[in-house]
Recover the amino acids of this structure.
């Protein structure tokens, strides 16, 4: 074993691991730039390297990118990668109250622990874990997705019915495009833009980040509280939070490793499952969802554990555990390394060298991550809004484009952002929508495949409810669904207090009307789906129709409840309406100009316009000059970097 | 900074102009964007990656692989003709996808919209079972399917795809009735096979190359046996006239000039002729083919179209 450590820790490999982690962290911190893309760009460079060094470099980038996703999640409420979705739940509230630096440090420590646990599992348990992962069939993936949906109860802010309706909406929009299991075109209404479906990362950016930008410009208040001077990394404090969560971090790392080892699940589900468990058993002063560091600990340790976990099926079975693994698999084949059953037996050298390299990269992530995290925090906290808004808006646009080089994805992203903003204000939080969007396709595929198999062997019931693993997941789902209602159930059973719910005053008629209209809109969406489903083949129709029917029932229940109780949960929007409307309008305008003016010019126009929208009060010409220079230079650097370093084919139009 | 930016901007503009006036002699004058209309890790990606290193060695420019997944390839192909037609933008194409998809509904492109310049390999269809499966031969499988109609389940990648069409055609030829379960990509379909979620897989020879001793190929849909699997019979040997698979090639936007199309075709042919490239491909379980730009390719495409449309019609996939 020791000789592998030596061959892993050559100066070249150490340098590659360090550079890889740093580059990965930066790439992952930009919303839209995913680990998959970071690794894909690197592949040609690795052709001229020895295979083990190439693997270490790609593994390091991958690890760094998964961690880097935490920055945007904490500081901008935008998961930089899908793995960091649950990081936003507590990370952003922490940043809002001025603890962003602590949150970033907690994320770094947790990521390192998770990464180490995952890598050790890869080292010691890879072959048995890979075999175990194969026991996961279509039905288990279906139930796993349903388990993920059980988080709705916890994530809906105050109103469970609204959360369920939002989740149904997310499930339905995940069905748009060509169905994977039936090859049928669904819910595109003749539009070719929608053919490829809603791309998940760009939807995340839209739903989470655009509402933040819209609210940011409305008032002159700072984005995040300024920290006191000289607090440093707050490392001892962060370490204390981690110790407080020592069971949480271990449990989440194990969850991350196991979910990572399932091909077809991935970091986003690992993070959500770990968060759900942490929340259920949660301790600490703050509530989960309102800035409890335990939420960050759970998500970040779980998603970094998926790196090691995901390599298990990749190396043992030759089946990629996560999308970045798929790219790495391709690069390995070109190198002449055959992954699959024979690798651990015949190619042991390269495997063990790589695993120690991955461990090294994970440990290096501690200093590198803390330093880059501190820089990111400082940059976001100190930037005036007039810089922050245009730069972040441009990042969302270019990042969304880069995912699959599509201009229409940017427009979809902004539109989803508007929907997300309105939904949030009406008390439907965006997280259930995202949950539905991510889990919808997994649930549908598992369901249709499980149904086809069960139907063929004439045992549908056994297929869905007779497999031991399925039963375990179903039990976990029930616990997770019912847990938030435990106090109510207890009261019902004890009958001690017949009417314990805190009574809110009946809302004014206008608010009731607003809520009524939003329910009717969701109801209309469900109706359209039911009608459209009639012309689809049964495989393509069964899932969306079932969801839409359920959604209609929930909408009806919500309407009845509304009329009876006049209980309305909504958020008020303070500040300038005009500025708010200006943000998505300018962004859509910029998108429309891209193909004629080129990405750079359209981006610059959009950036400068947003700068004026975001600036409140008068400022000196000098201030404007520095501001403009800052925004223009950043946008140009990004444009050139994406085009020339990352080889993203940004449309050049006339000029840039 | 601003100065540098300006220079860079002028440089980019100059390159753009050069691109417009590109002719075949200077091609390729910069890196070539190679768009794969699928995600990473599949057969299309891996063979593109194989080509990548040879391209750079032979022609001195980078071949930059990027992914444009969505709609089983439709997102990429529907945008093919809006890309720059100077030869520096090319896209991978797959059969039967480009023939079957546009006939299933409006997917944003027609088969005729795609200007193919070269077909460079295919992955022959194969029936794959787990190494410990009771199905030792194709005859075992047919016997089982006859004894238990519909109960024999096949995993495969997608619907209306090579795997799916192969299942339908073989069912007809063998007079059996089996159940096809569509998975997202070959990886997921292999996972289902390895986990015993299905009885067998309609896959490719590449699955056998990757999984080694874990799986057994019952038959391959080739004219002659694959050099990597000398012991595996062809369907033809066993009395079923089936030579099929997923064919992969390269297309250019329709605005690409004739001489550049021809030059590109020659370049891909040159890579295909390299023994080192062939060795890599064959070891990976792929099968080589060489159909270059021109009348040959048109004729081949027409013949495939006829076959696939007939098969898909009889299967009820298209009207």
């Amino acid at each position: 074993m020791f000789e592998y450590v030596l061959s892993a820790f050559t100066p070249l490999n150490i340098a590659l691991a360090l550079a890889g982690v740093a580059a990965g962290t930066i790439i992952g911190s930009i919303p839209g730039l995913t680990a998959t893309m970071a690794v894909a760009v690197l592949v040609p460079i690795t052709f001229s390297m020895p295979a083990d060094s190439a693997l270490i470099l790609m593994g390091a980038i991958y690890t760094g990118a998964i961690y880097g996703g935490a920055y945007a999640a904490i500081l901008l409420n935008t998961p930089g990668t899908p793995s960091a979705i649950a990081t936003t739940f507590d990370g952003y509230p922490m940043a809002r109250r001025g603890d962003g630096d602590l949150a970033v440090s907690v994320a770094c420590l947790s990521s390192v622990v998770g990464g180490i646990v995952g890598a050790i599992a890869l080292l010691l348990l890879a072959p048995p874990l890979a075999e175990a992962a194969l026991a996961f069939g279509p039905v288990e993936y279906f139930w796993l997705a349903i388990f993920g949906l059980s988080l709705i109860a916890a994530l809906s802010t105050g109103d469970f019915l609204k959360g369920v309706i939002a989740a149904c909406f997310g499930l339905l929009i995940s069905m748009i495009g060509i169905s994977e299991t039936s090859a049928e075109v669904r819910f595109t209404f003749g539009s070719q833009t929608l053919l490829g479906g809603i791309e998940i990362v760009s939807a995340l950016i839209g739903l989470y980040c655009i509402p933040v930008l819209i609210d940011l410009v409305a008032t002159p208040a700072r984005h995040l509280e300024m920290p006191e001077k000289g607090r440093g990394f707050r490392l001892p404090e962060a370490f204390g939070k981690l110790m407080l969560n020592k069971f949480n971090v271990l449990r989440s790392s194990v969850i991350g490793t196991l979910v990572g080892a399932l091909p077809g699940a991935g970091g986003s589900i690992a993070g959500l499952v770990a968060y759900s468990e942490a929340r259920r058993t949660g301790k600490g002063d703050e509530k989960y969802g309102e800035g409890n560091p335990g939420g960050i600990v759970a998500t970040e340790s779980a998603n970094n554990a998926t790196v090691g976990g995901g390599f298990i099926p990749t190396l043992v079975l030759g089946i990629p555990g996560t999308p970045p693994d798929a790219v790495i698999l391709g690069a390995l084949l070109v190198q002449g390394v055959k992954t699959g059953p024979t690798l651990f037996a015949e190619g042991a050298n390269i495997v063990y060298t790589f695993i120690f390299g991955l461990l090294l990269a994970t440990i290096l992530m501690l200093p590198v991550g803390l330093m880059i995290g501190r820089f990111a925090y400082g940059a976001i906290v100190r930037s005036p809004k007039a810089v922050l808004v245009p730069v972040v808006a441009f990042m969302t646009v270019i990042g969304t484009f880069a995912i699959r080089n599509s201009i229409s994805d940017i427009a979809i992203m902004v539109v989803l952002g508007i929907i997300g903003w309105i939904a949030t204000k009406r008390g439907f939080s965006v997280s259930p929508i995202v949950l539905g969007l991510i889990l919808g396709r997994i649930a549908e595929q598992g369901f249709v495949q499980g149904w086809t198999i069960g139907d063929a062997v004439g045992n549908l019931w056994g297929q869905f409810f007779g497999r031991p693993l399925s039963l375990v997941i179903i039990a976990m789902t029930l616990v997770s669904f019912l847990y938030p209602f435990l106090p109510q159930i207890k009261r019902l059973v004890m009958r001690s207090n017949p009417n314990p719910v805190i009574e809110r005053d009946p809302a004014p008629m206008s608010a009731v009307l607003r809520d009524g209209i939003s329910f009717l809109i969701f109801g209309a969406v469900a109706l359209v789906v039911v009608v459209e489903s009639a012309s689809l083949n049964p495989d393509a129709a069964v899932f969306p129709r079932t969801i839409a029917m359920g959604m209609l029932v929930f909408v009806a229940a919500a309407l009845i409840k509304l009329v009876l109780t006049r209980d309305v949960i909504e958020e008020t929007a303070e500040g300038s309406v005009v500025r708010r409307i200006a943000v998505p309008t300018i962004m859509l305008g910029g998108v429309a100009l891209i193909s004629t003016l080129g990405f750079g010019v359209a981006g610059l126009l959009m950036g400068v316009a947003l700068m004026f929208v975001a600036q409140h009060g008068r400022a000196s010409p000098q201030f404007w000059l520095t501001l403009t220079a800052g925004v223009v230079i950043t946008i140009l650097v990004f444009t050139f970097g994406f085009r020339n370093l990352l080889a993203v084919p940004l449309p050049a139009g006339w000029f840039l | 900074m601003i100065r540098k930016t300006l220079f860079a901007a002028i440089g980019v503009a100059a390159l753009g102009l050069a691109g417009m006036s590109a002719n075949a002699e200077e091609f390729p004058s910069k890196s070539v964007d190679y768009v794969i209309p699928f995600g990473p890790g599949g057969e299309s990606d891996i063979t593109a990656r194989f080509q990548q290193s040879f391209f750079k060695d032979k022609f001195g420019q980078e071949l930059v692989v990027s992914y444009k997944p969505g709609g089983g390839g439709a997102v990429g192909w529907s945008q093919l003709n809006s890309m720059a037609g100077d030869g520096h933008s090319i896209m991978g194409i797959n059969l039967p996808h480009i023939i079957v998809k546009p006939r299933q509904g409006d997917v944003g492109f027609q088969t005729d919209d795609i200007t193919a310049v070269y077909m460079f390999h295919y992955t022959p269809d194969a029936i794959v079972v787990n190494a410990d499966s009771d199905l030792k031969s194709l005859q075992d499988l047919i016997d089982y399917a006859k004894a238990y109609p519909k109960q024999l389940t096949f995993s495969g990648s997608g619907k209306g795809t090579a795997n799916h069409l192969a299942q339908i055609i073989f069912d007809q030829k063998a007079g059996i009735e089996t159940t096809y379960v569509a998975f997202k990509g070959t990886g997921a379909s292999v996972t289902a096979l390895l986990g015993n979620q299905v009885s067998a897989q309609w896959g490719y020879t590449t699955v056998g190359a990757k999984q080694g001793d874990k799986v057994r190929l019952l038959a391959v849909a080739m004219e002659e046996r694959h050099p990597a699997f000398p012991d595996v019979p062809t369907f033809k040997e066993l009395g079923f006239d089936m030579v099929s698979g997923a064919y992969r090639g390269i297309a250019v936007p329709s605005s690409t000039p004739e001489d550049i199309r021809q030059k590109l075709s020659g370049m891909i042919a040159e890579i295909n002729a390299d023994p080192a490239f062939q060795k890599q491909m064959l070891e990976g379980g792929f099968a080589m083919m060489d159909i270059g730009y021109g009348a040959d390719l048109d004729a081949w495409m027409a013949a495939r179209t006829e076959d696939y449309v007939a098969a898909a019609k009889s299967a009820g996939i298209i009207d």
Q: What stands out?
A: The longest strand of chain B covers residues 115-130. Chain B touches chain A through 73 residues (CB under 8 Å). The first helix of chain B runs from residue 2 to 20. Chain B has two domains: 32-122+245-314, 124-220.
